[in-house]
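Fill in residues.
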């Protein structure tokens, strides 16, 4: 799995997280910084205040994994689709760190859909609905035209190809 990791994406995600939190990016590996889930919980609480009520800063592995699970539930409520949310073991047991980075990148992108969030966002600008309305006359305007599927292509034909109906010589 480590072959699929994108260090630049991980760096962008960390820079965004700590820009949102208003803190300097700590030294260390991506997965080590986020492993206990405390920073993730603080992040979602900054994006949507009160999302995670209880954050365990110390404790057993199980208690720290609960931080990640609380974060996952909060981002789902925030609007991140279930299929984009990483699994707890992906981060805590370092099974799929690239999926964690992609999931956090998606979270940064989703913030654009929340007008109450005026802080930094991540990723390309989200597409907006661009609905168009055509009159019946506009929809029928092309009906008299001959298109390329009608068998006319500026005089081009398949005459002279010679391969149709012949046997294949090997």
């Amino acid at each position: 799995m480590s072959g699929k990791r994108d260090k630049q994406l991980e760096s962008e995600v960390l820079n965004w997280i700590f820009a949102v939190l208003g803190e300097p990016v700590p030294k260390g590996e991506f997965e080590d910084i986020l492993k206990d889930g405390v920073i993730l919980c603080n992040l979602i609480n900054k994006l949507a205040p009160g999302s995670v009520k209880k954050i365990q800063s110390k404790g057993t592995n199980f208690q720290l994994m609960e931080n990640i699970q609380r974060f996952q539930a909060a981002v789902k409520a925030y609007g991140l689709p279930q299929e984009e949310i990483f699994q707890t073991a992906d981060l805590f047991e370092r099974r799929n760190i690239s999926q964690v980075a992609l999931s956090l990148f998606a979270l940064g992108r989703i913030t654009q859909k929340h007008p109450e969030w005026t802080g930094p966002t991540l990723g390309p600008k989200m597409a907006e609905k661009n609905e168009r309305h055509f009159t019946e006359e506009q929809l029928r305007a092309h009906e008299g035209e001959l298109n390329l599927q009608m068998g006319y292509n500026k005089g081009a034909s398949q005459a002279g190809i010679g391969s149709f109906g012949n046997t294949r010589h090997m």
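The domain at 2-113 is CATH 1.10.418.10 (Actin-binding Protein, T-fimbrin; domain 1).
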